Amino acid sequence: MSTDPIRLGIVGLGAMGRRVLEVGLGHPEYAVTHAADLDPSVVSRLRAEHPGVRFSTTPADVIHADVDAVYVATPPATHAGLVVAALEGGKAVFCEKPLAISAADAEAMTVASAGRPTAVNFALSDRLATRYVEQALADGRVGDVLGVEIRLHFPVWPRPFQADATWVAGRAQGGFVREVLSHFAYLTDRLLGPLEPVHVQLGFGGAGESTAYGLLRAGDVPVQLIGSAGSPGPTTYEWILRGTNQSYLLRDWRDLFVADSNEWVPVELSGTEGSEDNRLSLFAHLIHGAPSPHLADFASGRRVQRVVEAFHATE
């Protein structure tokens, strides 16, 4: 295995791109050499902060640079063009979710990824809670799975940390179904198998999504979604797995609870928690030829894309 750092380029310097830039600069397995964003003010500021990185307002400068891997964190409608070009140039690619917003783009990206190290940045792929429930299912502790419930609510959308990304609010590329439900669709797909929509609905109010309702199934297991945005109440991220022996509640991305009677009891988790730093480490292992089961591959990203876009097909 090579001991040379992986030369990493980053396309898109919004909230996630800047996060990966900061993490990558301090990561022992990477050397961030190139980065690009369409906003000249962002590029100017980051160039002053990180003079060792070659910044540009032209994404192609990163895609065609002498780098080993590219992290793509641009709006999802642009993913396919950037990802396919990078893969055809021999680069490994780590792509932000959702993989794409059209079946044709997802197909093109999946085909181009054959034989190349690729992954999708789903935040739940390496979380301790994910791994714990996965093991509980494998051990039979859950018993028969009776159903999954997903509950999402956002008093304000976009969320404050995404306020500068105007596309996140729009119907064309954004909304909480693409931005948030995709994570929990990935989690359900990973633990129970591919999801099939039975009945889904998406409602709009003002500039974006206001409600989402879904009845889906993973094999014979019913999966229910209730989502809303733009009304009073606390921000809610909840995923519940109901089993005949045990049920699990995942709240706020990492807080896990178990019930084997009538009460939710916190689960004490130990080990390395999921993070951009950890996922970059897993991606480095993938580049070096080691399996990385706690990263989402393009095939799972494509399955999630199909589910998410089924909601938009109901408009």
From TrEMBL:
SUPFAM superfamilies: Glyceraldehyde-3-phosphate dehydrogenase-like, C-terminal domain, NAD(P)-binding Rossmann-fold domains
GO terms assigned for molecular function: nucleotide binding; oxidoreductase activity
Boundaries of every Gfo/Idh/MocA-like oxidoreductase N-terminal domain copy: 6-112
Superkingdom field: Bacteria
Gene3D superfamilies on file: Dihydrodipicolinate Reductase, domain 2, NAD(P)-binding Rossmann-like Domain
InterPro entries in the record: Gfo/Idh/MocA-like_OxRdtase_N, Gfo/Idh/MocA_oxidrdct_glycsds, GFO_IDH_MocA-like_dom, NAD(P)-bd_dom_sf
Record-annotated GFO/IDH/MocA-like oxidoreductase domain positions: 131-247
Keywords: Oxidoreductase
PANTHER family reported for this sequence: BCDNA.GH03377
Identification of the protein by name: Gfo/Idh/MocA family oxidoreductase
Phylogenetic classification of the source organism: Bacteria, Bacillati, Actinomycetota, Actinomycetes, Propionibacteriales
